[in-house]
Each structure stands twice: as C-alpha cells, then as structure tokens.
Specification:
The chain has 218 residues and is an alpha+beta fold. It contains six helices and eleven strands. The protein is 31% helix and 22% strand. The strands form three sheets. It has a five-stranded mixed β-sheet. Strands 8-9-11-10 form a four-stranded antiparallel β-sheet, covered by helices on one side. Helix 2 crosses helix 3. The two termini are 39 Å apart.
C-alpha cells in the first residue's frame, strides 16, 4: 500500500534516543514532522540534523513535534550526535528513531516490504529511498510528503513555510499562493461561493472570477 496525502500516518512503537515511544501517543494533539535518513554518519544528513536542531524553537512555537529516523541503532545515533554537535554547532534536541530492523521505513513505504538483513550490513545506497519528510496533523493524517535524493540537502525553512500554510488553511477557508510567506495575502478557497465569501471576508480583489485575493486572516 502506498501512503497518500490524507491517509492516517501509520502508528508504531519504537526505541528512540529519548526512550521508547508509541508514535500516535507521542504526537498527542500536536502537529508532527517525521524525517528520515538512510544511514548514520552520512555527510548530507549530518548537516540536516544540525540545522533542524537549530531551528527547532520555530517548530515548537507552532506546536509541531520533530522526530528523526535513521536505519541504524539508537546507540549509533548517540555516537553520531557527538559528530553533529562538533561539526554543526548544535546538539540534537529531538528524538531520533532507531530503525535498525527497517520496520518503520517499511511501514512508511520508504523501503520494500521484503527488505531484510541487519542494518550494519546495509549501506546508505541500499537505503537511499529513506529520505522522506512527512508532516502530520493533529488528526494523525498525512498533510505533506517530500522525498529527496541523497545528494540534495533538504530545505527545512520550506517545511516550516508549508507548516504555516497548513495551519492557516486548516483554520480558515483560504489557500496560499505561490511562494507565500506568513503575513502575505491569500486566496479564498474555491469551495467558498461568493455569497458566503461576502459574509466571511466582506470584499476581495478579483483579477479573475476564480482568483479572489484577501489579506491573511488572523
């Protein structure tokens, strides 16, 4: 089964660098970002984990919980964390799942279900599809899926921007246009007919009947 937007994020139990968790219970009523790595001690992922640690307060401010995953053991993660802090100048401040049996990677369709073998015997290239970002809502549904190649570092500022859009559009009947940032104008959702839009938004700019632009709701 291939995961799609709107699907319930699969629940699981796992060991993490912060102790054992049950994923849905750990999320609680918060938003969540789960992002995955093919192997510990890989260069691009080292930079990503360090940067995420630096900007985690921005996710905290939005009530978004961060959790990483790498196809190695939590003891390896702990050793990797020392390298991350030394080279990136940031200590890990969120849990990282130990997925040395590939259980979660397979559950989230990042590796084939038939994948087997000890993590120690697998290379980063073997696990190269474990490079996903999932944004999960308080309803436990998947709101965003991004998949990156191993050679391209992820843009977590963009993930933060998408979270802003998702949280805004979950609360108000609007959509966000191209390159939208917090505080900029938005578009009235197509599902809102004009009579209803007048009650909600009063007035709007309308370059075309299907493009109705209003200030960002508070």
């Amino acid at each position: 089964m291939t995961l799609k937007l709107g699907d319930i994020a699969p629940d699981f139990s796992a060991k993490t660098t912060a102790g054992d968790i049950r994923f849905h219970d750990w999320l609680g009523e918060s938003w969540g970002v789960l992002f995955s790595h093919p192997k510990d001690f890989t260069p691009v992922c080292t930079t990503e984990l360090g940067y995420m640690a630096k900007i985690k307060p921005e996710f905290d401010r939005r009530d978004v919980k961060i959790i990483g995953l790498s196809v190695d053991s939590t003891s390896d993660h702990d050793r990797w964390a020392a390298d991350i802090e030394e080279t990136q100048g940031a200590r890990l401040n969120f849990p990282v799942i130990g997925d040395d049996d590939c259980t979660v990677a397979k559950l989230y369709d990042m590796l084939p279900a038939a994948t087997s073998g000890d993590a120690k015997s697998r290379t980063a290239a073997d696990n190269q599809t474990v490079r996903n970002v999932f944004v999960i809502g308080p309803d436990k549904k998947i709101k965003l899926i991004l998949v990156y190649p191993m050679t391209t570092g992820r843009n977590f500022d963009e993930v933060l921007r998408v979270v802003d859009s998702l949280q805004l559009t979950a609360k108000h009947r609007v959509a966000t246009p191209v390159n939208w940032k917090q505080g900029e104008d938005v578009i009235i959702a197509g599902s809102v007919k004009n009579d209803e839009a007048r009650e909600i938004f009063v007035e709007w700019k309308e370059p075309k009947p299907y493009i109705r632009i209003v200030p960002q709701p508070v």
